[in-house]
């Protein structure tokens, strides 16, 4: 079987499988069956399990694994990573990588079509995408809405250039912009829909200005501890939008300009801060629902574990904005916390958890999101009077 015939067969089989699993909305089936993902992902990395605990990424190309295996991997519901740490891969001699921070990819197709479907568009819809990446999602968008109705923005010049080549080769010619999408796409006429396939800490106001009133923004919010989830907002005017989380799970790589500072700064000394007992352990940060609330409570914090005196495990929580810290230490069956700096970080987490529990421990999809001229908030029950948490905005 020739490569195009095999690719075609695997693509149709893949679309059928996604549809059978309820992961391919009917409106997006034709696009999934048509757009040749393999022409956008000729070379990529996939994560594998590693006994060291550090993720090992292995390269996949036609030359390395053979045409059939490469195509099988392309036509699967996986994210295919194409860049790490903002540096292009040397594809003349690709090596397995231990660790590394993925900075560009073709996102798993079921998530892409879920997000595109959430745009609730029709044949006339104009769309701006932030995070062109390989161009695969841009091509799906072009197939469904027509390429003259689509614009896509990518911050990385090399990534953008490769996406342009693949899109044009496949016959799509949307507007392609190279630049920081947090500042918008520079459109003269706002689009009806905005979608972002990179995570943001808050919704850039530029996206509201470049979306028509009544239009929708679909994006993932995330923090430095974890992803918050997928939101869909209706734009009211160029300063206001309101909506809610529609899924808790998906996490995208953070917008490059919003990544956590590389340096953690000075770690607190053993005598710094005041110690007290706490009923809230650091596992809270990593559990699905409580982790969501903790991320909202301490938006500028990062956390890691490190053994302390006597080998007892310590969890460090450090705030990059104000230098506050909380160090949690195993204490018998529970934990003690030592806090210092202008804000009691762990007390913020405890208070947020208490509010959330008092509200019946709702799932992320019950939280609303409001964008206003001078602030952005995630809230419960009522946008004005319910408990709310501020999002950091650039
Ligand atoms: C998950 S990938 C995009 C996936 C892509 N839509 C696809 O399906 O192939 C995220 C992309 O967002 C880009 N990006 C990060 N920050 C950005 C920014 N501020 N403006 C525009 N693009 C950005 C990254 O360079 C990366 O290529």
UniProtKB/TrEMBL annotation:
The keyword Kinase does not apply. One of its GO terms (biological process) is methylation. It comes from the Bacteria. Signal peptide: none annotated. The keyword Ion transport does not apply. Residues 87-107 are annotated as: Disordered. GO terms for molecular function: methyltransferase activity. Transmembrane segments: none annotated. This is Methyltransferase.
